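[09:14] KT: can someone run the structure on this one? pasting the chain below
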Amino acid sequence: MSCPEPLVLIVSGPSGSGKSTLVQRILELPGVMLSVSCTTRLPRKTESAGKWYNFVTEAEFQQMVARGEFLEYAQVFGKNWYGTPRKQLDEARKQKKDLVLEIDVQGALQAKQQLPNAVAIFVLPPSRDDLERRIRERGQDSEDEIRRRLERARQEILNYSAYDFVIINDELERASREAQAIAVGSRCRIAQKAERIHEILKTFGG
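[09:31] RB: done, structure tokens below
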């Protein structure tokens, strides 16, 4: 019997929308694993390789691109590259787990082309002012960077119709329940259950 394809959940949203927190809530569900992305940016003080990202040089990243190792990849803010290695999907298939991709809008559009059965979730802040406040509270960005992030957020939101679900992250507990509900409900789609349905049909004689 062939190994069923894992459910792939794509989670995107503007920087500061809280998508990483919602991804963590999805990962609390049994049978779910995180896709570890590759990036050319330097790790932050709180980050360690292999947890959320594998950190590589730009030369290494471009070699991976040339070898066709990415499901999707994109350059963010015209600086650093990010990509989802295909081997993450192979690992999810091997472990019989669902796979969560936390990627930006560019990457999400690419991934949906590669994986049309993937479920895409867009995380929205309740307003521009709220998003600006969240970005400022992190204390990581200059004024120019904050302006770039807010303009990029506007551009990203224009792509909302490419997604299957939207979560407005104005109340964390409710948003977390919605994220988990989408994940659990998506497991019951026909596309995910087709092989099991055929097995059940066989017990009825075909």
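[09:33] KT: thanks! The radius of gyration is 18 Å.
[09:34] RB: yep, looked fine to me
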